[in-house]
Amino acid sequence: MNAKAFWGILQTERTFRPIEDWRITSISVGSVSPNVYRLRNGPEDYYVKEINEGERKSLLVLAAIRSKLTPPIIFPDLISRRILVSPYLGPCLRQKAKLELQLFREYARMQNMLNDPGVRENLRRTHGYKWSDKDNGWFSRGYAKGISGCLPWIIRFKQRYKLHELDMWVKAFSFMAGNARLIAREYSGMPFARLHGDFREDNVVGKPQRLADWCSSYERSINGHGPFMSDVGLYLARDERVKRAFIRASNICRKADARTIDRWIWLASCIPLWGKANMLIPDNGRMELSVATVRRFVRKHTWICRVVLSHRGRPVGM
Ligand SMILES: Nc1ncnc2c1ncn2[C@@H]1O[C@H](COP(=O)(O)OP(=O)(O)O)[C@@H](O)[C@H]1O
Ligand SMILES: [Mg+2]
After folding, report:
1. Are 209 and 143 part of one and the same domain?
2. What are the tens digits of pLDDT across the range 24-63?
3. 293 in the same domain as 147
4. Are residues 39 and 151 in the same domain?
5. What are 156-210's pLDDT values in tens digits?
6. pTM over 0.70
7. Which of 84, 217, 224, 268 makes a 20 to 30 Å CA pair with 159?
């Protein structure tokens, strides 16, 4: 929407009239969204964002189940008009900051609620909520192709940059390319649940931590649903405490045995490694990053290659 429409809609809420009383600063931390602002007036301090259709749907559903996973919504009526107003919860986390265990518990609770047949039926009637419990080929086909397409790139990177740090990447991607269809099939066969789609430090704010930015939720999944561990797999692979907290809170995990859970974590670590590789691969085909940049990036994520290459959780036959 254009600026005039945005500010016009916001001012339908009395609090924001006259808008001249408000101190407005633009927020643009890696911003994809067009209108994201902090609005301050005396003690009032708000985060205001123009939301897309996917985020609108997600927020309505999360509000309906009173999920504490997201920052509170201050003016629910504005959501249907594509504007989110939340309390301003301070800047997002620093890269190294640790995610709190409660965040994973709240995430699991959100999935539990939205997988509950009664809750779903209610949401279907009141919000026309649609969901998918199975892959329609979106995950299995797309991911298999994506994973195998990465290997030639990693090899080209090795030839161009000659970094010994890339050896582990070549190994991991050779392995994944050789098993791409199996990985994609197993991954997309995991139980489905509601996803966020962009679960990372950049989208976490406040104390207690809250997960913001639900605009990817519909894009990277089928109606917001997908393999239930895909958002959190890497965090579970990296930290035993997170793993335990999530497993205890997740209804899907509670019904599964330890081996199956390890297999899901393994699968949900393979896919993000492919995502990391994609961040390195240039759109224009030219490898112009400096050696130092590539080295830093590769080193930072090599631990994921180790997870992929380890035997813990790896499905039989791979
Ligand atoms: N309630 C909030 N209070 C303060 N900052 C927030 C809040 N919600 C999100 N943010 C910050 O604003 C940034 C941009 O918002 P986000 O919803 O992630 O938009 P985008 O779609 O542009 O990534 C986020 O990285 C986060 O740091
Ligand atoms: Mg964001």
Report:
1. yes
2. 999 876 566 789 999 999 999 999 999 999 999 999 999 9
3. yes
4. no
5. 999 999 999 999 999 999 999 999 999 999 999 999 999 999 999 989 999 999 9
6. yes
7. 268
Same domain, yes or no: 74 and 150: no
* Ligand 2 centroid to residue 30 C-alpha, Å: 7
Q: Which ligand is nearest to the CA of 31?
A: 1
> Does the residue 75 lie in any domain?
yes
The structural domain count of the chain equals 2
CA of 202 to the centre of ligand 2 (A): 6
Closest ligand (CA of 92): 1
157 with 285, same domain: the answer is yes
Residues with CB under 6 A from ligand 1: 27, 29-33, 36, 47, 49, 71, 86, 88-92, 202-203, 205, 212-213, 215
